[in-house]
Amino acid sequence: MNGPFDFTLALGDDALVAAQRLGEWATRAPEMEEDIALANIALDQLGAARLLLSYAGELEGAGRDEDALAYLRDDREFRNCLLVELPNGDFAVTMVKLLLLSAYQVPLYTALAGCPDERLAAIGAKARKESAYHLDHSALWVKRLGDGTDESHRRAQAALDQLWPYHHELFAADPAAPVDPATLRAGFDAVVQPVLAEATLTRPETGWTPGGGRDGVHTEHLSFLLAEMQVLHRAHPGARW
Amino acid sequence: MSEQNEPPRTPATSPLWEVFVRARRGLSHTHVGSLHAPDAELALRNARDLYTRRQEGVSIWVVPAGAITASSPDEKDAFFDPAADKVYRHPTFYEVPDGVAHL
Amino acid sequence: MYGNDFAPEQDAPGGGLLGQVEAAEAALREAAARAREGSPTPGADPAAYFADVIDADQKIEPRDWMPDAYRRTLVRQIAQHAHSEIIGMQPEGNWISRAPSLKRKAILLAKVQDEAGHGLYLYAAAETLGVSRDELVELLLDGRQKYSSIFNYPTLTWADVGAIGWLVDGAAIVNQVPLCRCSYGPYARAMIRVCKEESFHQRQGYEILHTLAHGTPAQQAMAQDALDRWWYPSLAMFGPPDGDSTHSAQSMAWKIKRFSNDELRQRFVDMCVQQAEVLGLRIPDPDLRWNDERQAYDFTQPDYDELMRVISGEGPCNRQRMEHRRRAHADGAWVREAATAYAAKRAGRTRAADQREKVAA
């Protein structure tokens, strides 16, 4: 990554793809109350995505708005991390994924709120409060699943085993960016470790650190996600909605 | 789908909570409805999502519905009539002199 | 479910539907302020007291005496209303992932979320009558209680999301606004809350169709096709004609229901005609015309045999909707069990800690 455009686009894509995945839960949540909570979080991510993509379009100066960036790029042009594009899986996968994502987004947006770019600072100030709620919600559920029944513990541990390798990509160093992700790791660890401990979950030991999302090299899942998201918009070129 | 024929799983029935919201500073908490949650922490979160989606509140209480003891309508007179003769508790008992505002 | 008080023209008579909701709320407060002679004196006839309260347009509250049939009617109606909100999330939820702009995606997500919220308000109102939500959910999943038949039709195109907002939510609110004056307090209050929350939805379905109807030829065709498919099912939402409606008379006497099915259907048609004109879309009824004598539109009745078939389970999506709901419920069982187990463990730990404290003291 280099420059504020790539940085802003990457954060916008993280939020957009996360929102798309969370939106898939609508009508499918384990309890009706949770349907509402997941929709809230999806709406927050979508709101952040729209602000970030709109600003990225302005930084680029090529006349692309939020919809042009969301609907008219192919998967190789998306810059989101791999973690957010992975399929929802069961509720444990979704909650562990949200824990890892929000434990990264809280220090990220907090740092952004203090950065010299006023627009990014304003977005960070708004989004960090929302991310704090996402972190609270996911931590609450990871504890309940990890320390609930045998089955929920097994599922939560499996989710952590599956997702843990993907968090490394979030902290790849980028000293030129408005906020260097490498500086956020300590904040992430300080939040995640106690939650996992209370949830009686074990961090997996693995050296595998998948990545590539920031360079547009994704998992096979992203292209399907985009195909669904973009199908209607692309079927009617130039139409207003 | 065959759920209908399967024996019912252990019902994970979560308790009922009554929700009270303080809409604005200066007002008391008002009962707004109820919801289900397995524990108080989740009940509070659910109440936030369900009853304050449009910034309707500054403070929320959740109370286990089972912890509330309610009077019966039949007991109404015994319960509430003693207060009926204490009209000095009602602000309209007092005559406000003309020209006094914000009282 | 949402309102269709979107066209400014509609605001004129009676202050629009939202105005009627506010009037209902004011009436509720006013009725509450009218002092009643205490409560049933011990030994007095509770049925007479119940009748008095209804006659005086006051509200029956949860712990009041009420006839069993009144309670049963309310439980059935409120539960089926709640089920409709929950099942009704599916046809629109079907388009969240494909919404054609990020703004539309956000609006649709918020709308489907509100439907879940409205379902929960209604289940909470039903629970005040002495049934549990779990029981009601079981009745839905077992197919022993119904939901609105309209949700058994598919959303095939994006324009269907607009048609649901305009017609289905429109028909629903014509039904719901009078329910804000229902004699049962918790139901009336839930309906007031539901109707008021819909202020942001009121225009969205209409706006979607308006944009499509003024868009490309393909978008216009999509909008007309949606109106063609949703018009008659929406008329059928008001239920069978008055002559065939079994519950109506008693419900009206109890002030649970305030207008007959046919009255509400007529009101809905009269509202829609001009709105369709503004859209530039054609209501698929060659016999639709103004009747000067009646001061209302004559229109073709929906196919009530089709309505009965859909209610009995033979609509295009009945099985799909129920299977979806059952699967979500079954797939979530382990999560609900985990939360219950965690709560029990933690309560146990707290008790143990209390014990230790006592011992230490």
From TrEMBL, chain A:
Q: Name one Pfam family in it.
A: PaaA_PaaC
Q: Which GO terms describe its cellular component?
A: cytosol
Query: What biological process terms from GO does the record include?
Result: phenylacetate catabolic process
Q: Name the InterPro entries for this protein.
A: Aromatic_CoA_ox/epox (IPR052703), Ferritin-like (IPR012347), Ferritin-like_SF (IPR009078), PaaA_PaaC (IPR007814), PaaC (IPR011882)
- Read off the SUPFAM superfamilies from this record: Ferritin-like
Matches recorded under NCBIfam families: PA_CoA_Oxy3
Q: What is this protein called?
A: Phenylacetate-CoA oxygenase subunit PaaI
From TrEMBL, chain B:
InterPro entries given in the database record: PaaB (IPR009359), PaaB_sf (IPR038693)
This one is known as 1,2-phenylacetyl-CoA epoxidase subunit B
| Organism of origin | Micromonospora wenchangensis
TrEMBL record, chain C:
Q: Name one GO biological process term.
A: phenylacetate catabolic process
One GO molecular function term?
Answer: phenylacetyl-CoA 1,2-epoxidase activity
SUPFAM superfamilies given for it?
Ferritin-like
Question: Pfam families from the xrefs?
Answer: PaaA_PaaC
Q: Which GO terms describe its cellular component?
A: cytosol
Q: Which Gene3D superfamilies match?
A: 1.20.1260.10
- Protein name (record): 1,2-phenylacetyl-CoA epoxidase subunit A
